[in-house]
Amino acid sequence: MCRVTCLYGQVQVFGFTISQGQPSQDVFSTYTHSRLTVNAVHYSMPEKSKKEMKREARTLLKPHLNQDDRCWLMKNFSPLCSIVMLENLKTSTVNFIISHPGLSYIFVQESRTFQINSEYFALRSVGIKKEKKKNGLRLTESALSALEELVNVSCEEVDGCPVILVCGSQDVGKSTFNRYLINQLLNSISCVDYLECDLGQTEFTPPGCISLLNITEPILGPPFTHQRTPQKMVYYGKAACKNNYENYIDIIKYVFSSYKRESPLIVNTMGWVTDKGLLLLIDLIRLLSPSHVVQFSSSRSKYMPNLTPDYVDDMDGLYTKSKSKVRNRGFQLTEFAESLEFADEDKESPLMFTGHKLMCVQSDFAFRKTPRNRESHNRILRDLAVLGYLGQLQPPVPKPLCPLHGLTPYQVPFNAVALRILHADVAPTHILYAVNASWVGLCKILDDVRGYADGPILLAQTPICDCLGFGICRGIDMEKRLYHILTPVPPEELRNVNCLLVGAISVPQCVLKGQRGLEGTIPYVTTDYNLKLPGASEKIGARETEVTYQERPHPKPKFYRKVN
């Protein structure tokens, strides 16, 4: 990872062009994703003599290099070259992630290197290591063609803002394509909207969320390096929507209603495209009415029919019915509005589904996942996203890291927030055991929860409501009737929180097992655990945990003490 500044000319990183005079960009190239490259970009020859160009370059270099280094550099100067400054980069979020045992490999791995020379040591001092070209990002001709067309369509603004839905099976490069497309669009327009419909591999939030974001900065790293605050977000609470499809569709409809159609929209979808997953995808296409559907396939992916407008018209979805073909492909959304329970104002809107343009992309995406290790790999990426979010709690560099149990939590009275456990039936007497040491969604419901004397206040049904952020319930004070919540959400936003949702997304085990500076038994961790107890096995709603370490619910642990 490093900070990239273009001092002269132009370079491109992951599709985003960095020109001289533009702000520096932080670049994160990790072993969990394709390696990033810095490429020189061909630019038009300025109407200046070579002497004038060298004088200009020398002036631009003066604030950054001493005279000897400038002279050496100018000896290698040529017209149309690009000069890039690479600086060592440290961020509190990355420092927090790699402080956990076993996670430093994400950025640093010992392996055979190229020739060890002065260039090798210079790059290493900045935080860069040369990699073989085959490890870099490779885009196929069909992917490049789709990117070029989508950028052109988005910049023309002839037919309004395009809605681009990207679909395909797992591990074919959808997320990589989305990042590259966002960066390419940001070269020409100021912002791009992004609708996240993939619960398991979210791009800008912790897992288990449906969200809408307005992206104004390039994406130059994996998700755990760019956690951002959405315009609209709902916490679904699981990494997959199986067995609760209708709620999934309703949440997407609720979040999508905030899209203003002022910028191009990119829709990311799940990699589940067989059986009911395919039917859900057809429902989504009908609901979102995309102008373009980018469908990925590869020689290693499962068969998926081409989602042409005719195919979508003729197929029943999970909740929507097929439409008989009409010559102009135009029809009202009356039946869909009824089946998806649109609000009255939506039913009266003149929204027309006029068909989409299908863009088939053949992927040659290299990945190391196999059916055997896929779930383990995906769980690591989900944990990294949660750690990336928690990294916002850390003080900025160069201040040292602070362990999570050393940070001061917020005190939340029992009667100030309502509680709901998602996707699992929990007896009211056990609710606090489920909440303690859990990952919680900090939400805002329309109901007024004030007026209850003691609490806890339990919701009978799962609400579809705005999620303002996340936190860890790091302790419960039964005497004072307080939750102790650790969260990076700013206080002005926390004032709006009146509901805590607990789903099946867990606090990463490395957080619980790596509590430094503690003596004796580690709070919430035990090796003495009976998996035969009811509710202890990994079923729906259970936390994804190892056999040897389990979270131990404890309504009044010594861990909750406030540290000043």
Percent range for β-strand residues: 15-25%
Distance between the termini: 34 Å
Number of helices: 15
| Basic shape | globular
Domain Clp1 P-loop: 168-302
Region (Disordered): 545-564
Subunit structure: Interacts with PELP1, WDR18 and SENP3. Interacts with LAS1L to form an ITS2 pre-rRNA endonuclease-kinase complex.
Pfam family, one: NOL9_C
How would the blueprint of this fold be written?
Layout: E1 2-8, E2 10-13, E3 16-19, E4 25-27, E5 38-40, H1 50-61, H2 67-75, E6 83-88, H3 92-98, H4 118-126, H5 141-156, E7 163-167, H6 174-186, E8 192-196, E9 209-215, E10 232-235, H7 245-256, E11 265-268, H8 276-288, E12 292-297, H9 309-314, E13 331-332, H10 334-339, H11 344-347, E14 352-353, E15 357-362, H12 374-390, E16 410-413, E17 418-421, H13 431-435, E18 439-444, E19 457-458, E20 466-477, E21 482-486, H14 491-494, E22 499-502, H15 509-513, E23 525-526, E24 550-551
Parallel strand pairs: 7-11, 7-12, 8-11, 12-15, 17-19, 17-22
Antiparallel strand pairs: 1-4, 1-6, 2-3, 2-5, 8-9, 9-10, 13-14, 16-21, 18-20, 18-22, 20-21, 23-24
Helix pairs in contact: 3-12, 5-6, 7-8
Characterise this structure.
It catalyses: a 5'-end dephospho-ribonucleoside-RNA + ATP = a 5'-end 5'-phospho-ribonucleoside-RNA + ADP + H(+); a 5'-end dephospho-2'-deoxyribonucleoside-DNA + ATP = a 5'-end 5'-phospho-2'-deoxyribonucleoside-DNA + ADP + H(+). The chain has three domains: 134 residues, no CATH class; 190 residues, Rossmann fold (3-Layer(aba) Sandwich); 112 residues, Elongation Factor Tu (Ef-tu), domain 3, CATH 2.40.30. It is 24% helix and 19% strand. It is built from 15 helices and 24 strands. The strands form six sheets. It has a seven-stranded mixed β-sheet with strand order 10-9-8-11-7-12-15, with helices on both faces. The longest helix has 17 residues.
